[in-house]
Amino acid sequence: MVFDNVFVIDHPLVCHKLAILRMKDTSTSRFRALLREMSMLMAYELTRDLRTTEVALETPLAPAKGRMLEGKKVVLVSVLRAGNGMLDGVLELIPSARVGHIGLYRDPKTLEPVEYYFKMPGEMRDRDVLVMDPMLATGNSAAAAVTRVKQTRPRSIKYMCLLAAPEGIRAFHAEHPEVPIYTPAIDERLNDHGYIVPGLGDAGDRIYGTK
Ligand code: URA
Fold first, then answer.
1. Which atom from ligand 1 is nearest to the alpha carbon of 190?
2. Ligand 1 atom 3: the closest Cα is on which residue?
3. What is the count of structural domains for the chain?
4. Residue 68: inside a domain, yes or no?
5. For residues 104-122, average pLDDT
6. What mean pLDDT comes out for the span 50-77?
7. How many angstroms is it from 73 CA to the middle of ligand 1?
8. Which atom of ligand 1 is nearest to the CA of 197?
9. pTM to 2 decimals?
10. CATH code, domain carrying 82
11. pLDDT 10s digits, 149-182
12. Does residue 202 line the site of ligand 1, with CB under 6 A?
């Protein structure tokens, strides 16, 4: 399946770690560690086009020139609670990033998102935002989260997840066609409960051991 504006990060290390994440017997601690590692590897790809500026510096031997990140700090937005499982890995790679949180829960009957928390850094204008949530399932929460982030008028938004369902990609891009999606894999479908198949189960439960 090929979708416009969807980037499948299928680096061998990412694929290997994803396979272990999917396994039903992978422990909570291993799941958390792998998710963190994968998020870091994905962030490396996602940040490829960040702007840099030339700086003058001194090595122990001579003056030299280097390139450093330019402009305002990147903002990482975690969609609670599973997004927090990706946050730490990305923060390890971009320690100066600012962090926002969005709390949404899925109404079990309608599968529609309901917002209960929204906190962003100040001065979002001119900032690049990475929104993260492991499972792009129905796409409803993802689209709602990005709609809220757009209201803060950042310079750019990218969406990163761990698994995407075709239904979720279509629903998300119906509302936000210009927002690129980065995922290691696109799975077959959603089941009747809105879970990704084959997927990996409930990401939040697997990260926090709540099942
Ligand atoms: N949320 C999850 O945690 N898993 C799914 O498969 C779908 C939504």
1. 6
2. 202
3. 1
4. no
5. 87
6. 95
7. 30
8. 6
9. 0.94
10. 3.40.50.2020
11. 999 999 999 999 999 999 999 999 999 999 999 9
12. yes
